[in-house]
Amino acid sequence: MTDELLMQRVKEGDLSQSAVLYHRYHQRIYHYLGKMTGNFTMAEDLTQSVFEKLINYRQSFNPDQKFENWVFRIARNAFVDQVKLNGKMPRAHSIEVTDLENIIEDQESSTEQDVLLTKALNALQSDDREILVLTRFEKLKYTEVANILGTTEANVKIKVFRAIEKLRNQYFKLSTI
């Protein structure tokens, strides 16, 4: 059954179907929020919040839109709300070693390059980091990212190109230290 049909059932009152959606998406949402906040404990709380909002705002789901875009928009809004609550986004220097280990945990071997890439990603501004997380780590299409961010596909392409350049520069800067 498609995500959209499951969400339609949730919208109609069959809340048990939200468990299936949670099972399909909680890891992706958790990793997205972890990469965005740099704090995997906070990401865990925010992920729970996203799925609570999924149920609370189920009536706003449009079955003609893609569920994946809708749930990532909820996750993005949860992240933005958290940043507003805390006043600013954590930077790379505030990321704990255990959080760094969680970021690369699902890779077979943690190499120095993985650590440098993670540090470089965390050193980027949140907008640049977000565009890379959505397109490269979550593997969303540019049109889907445009939908989530409320912009055009062309704008997403430009932002991705610029963010990759910034990431590359940050990576090489860190690798020479």
In short:
This protein has 177 residues and is mainly alpha-helical. The protein is built from nine helices and no strands. The chain has one domain (3-175).
Could you name the ranges where pLDDT drops below 50 across 5 or more consecutive residues? 91-109
Helix content: over 70%
Mean pLDDT, nearest integer? 86
Strand content: under 5%
H/E series: HHHHHHHHH
Tell me which oligomeric state these chains represent: single chain
**Rg to the nearest angstrom?**
17 Å
Instruction: Kindly name the structural category.
Output: mainly alpha
Note the total helix count.
9
Number of domains: 1
Number of strands: 0
N-to-C span: 50 Å
Largest β-sheet summary:
none
| Overall body shape | globular
